[in-house]
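Margin note: ligand = guanosine-5'-diphosphate.
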Amino acid sequence: MAAKIALVGRPNVGKSTLFNRLVGKRLALVDDTPGVTRDRREGEAKLGDLSFTVVDTPGLEEAPEAALEGRMRQQTDRAVEDAAACLFMIDARAGVTPLDKAFASILRSSGKPVILLANKAEGSAANAGLYDAYALGVGEPIAISAEHGEGMGDLYAALESFLATEEAVDESNDEIAWDDPLKPLRVAIVGRPNAGKSTLVNKLIGEDRLLTGPEAGITRDSISVEWRWQGKNREWPVKLFDTAGMRKKARVQSKLEKLSVSDALRAIKFAEVVVMLLDAETPFEKQDLQIADLALREGRALVIGVNKWDLIEERNTKMRSLQEMAGRLLPQAPGVPIVAFSAKTGAGLNRIMPAVTQVYVDWNARVKTSELNDWLQEATSRHAPPAVSGQRIKLRYIAQTKTRPPTFVAQCTRAEEVPDSYKRYLVNGIRDAFDIKAVPIRLILKKPD
Ligand code: GDP
Ligand code: GDP
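Resulting structure:
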């Protein structure tokens, strides 16, 4: 059974809004028997590759003022009782209220891990409330906007440690130098069976070298195809890895559903850029998310390709909903490009390679050390590193040590004690300041030599 996460806070801070965002349409249990106050509701929540049961505690609004404290404690106790962790929400615009303090004290005495969410913080509109929130004594606040979906990446990172996830995958080396014009850009097309991978590769290279379709026993003699793409400023040699081909080559017929993930992993290891192919009619299923998450953990640049667009009628609505889903379900990759097309008719295929080369360039981004250090100074003075056991953490120097994906090392006192939330603040800062979109960014904090 999925771990439970309790959503706690006074009325009107935005709990239901976050609940709905996390649960979407997957609401498992709603008790709307007339005359019965809904004390709590539960739903199956998804955030990136994390699945958990979120327990909301609405209904307090209806309680008479005098009874509020008692009822509040009772309900909170029940919701928190078997939760793995609590999301404690305040309204960052309203600041900290006496009722917030009462909740904080209940939560502190529960002994459960607490993640403090400062909601309604869209567009960093609520910095003052954010600082107040430290006074609640339940750790560092994470600024989010439940309504606009901001801060979901930070929430993901905070929740991740309380929830079991798949084992991390080994790091693999990237041995090919980026500006060697003869080395092809290695692109993997991954996705669930029948997403249209073979059809896409065929169409892209303009010949029917790979066979598609439901016929049994079709094999290919190669798992990759080389090809050249004419970009705006240069021609790109490209090597496409097609997981459908890998599967067919291995002649493995059984357990296709399961296999496609391990095939995808193989292709991801070969690749620099991963195009995750979704079926427009059934996008973002569990396996899609697993594959996308694998690609990002492997440090690859990601593009989401939405295939079978010819079957979609309300395209604008569909695209908006895909963007919303990507923001919510893939918070690890903010701004990942989503391109829609029909591999079958060829419509929209010209959108793929510009997106692929764009993320490839970001993946190879190199930031000047002087600019990085200017940024670090500004970032640490805007929001100073926290103090740990009475001593302030000092960040002294930062440099980029690697590209593909961009990797930064900062010298830092008490490096191992820097809270994750502060690391996230730095990573997001690098992303924004140097416009590195849609690719993983790694930040390593090291004790000064
Ligand atoms: P609950 O009582 O804690 O469940 O709060 P609701 O989810 O019902 O939200 C209370 C009000 O705050 C509603 O009017 C929401 O639209 C609003 N709200 C929720 N999240 C946000 C947010 O991120 N930003 C802003 N500005 N308003 C929000
Ligand atoms: P793979 O398993 O991911 O390699 O998928 P295939 O390329 O074999 O395609 C699976 C099925 O989807 C085939 O019947 C294709 O004809 C069909 N298909 C692929 N692309 C499209 C598309 O853009 N539109 C439509 N309508 N069908 C498509």
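The chain is about 35% helix and 20% strand.
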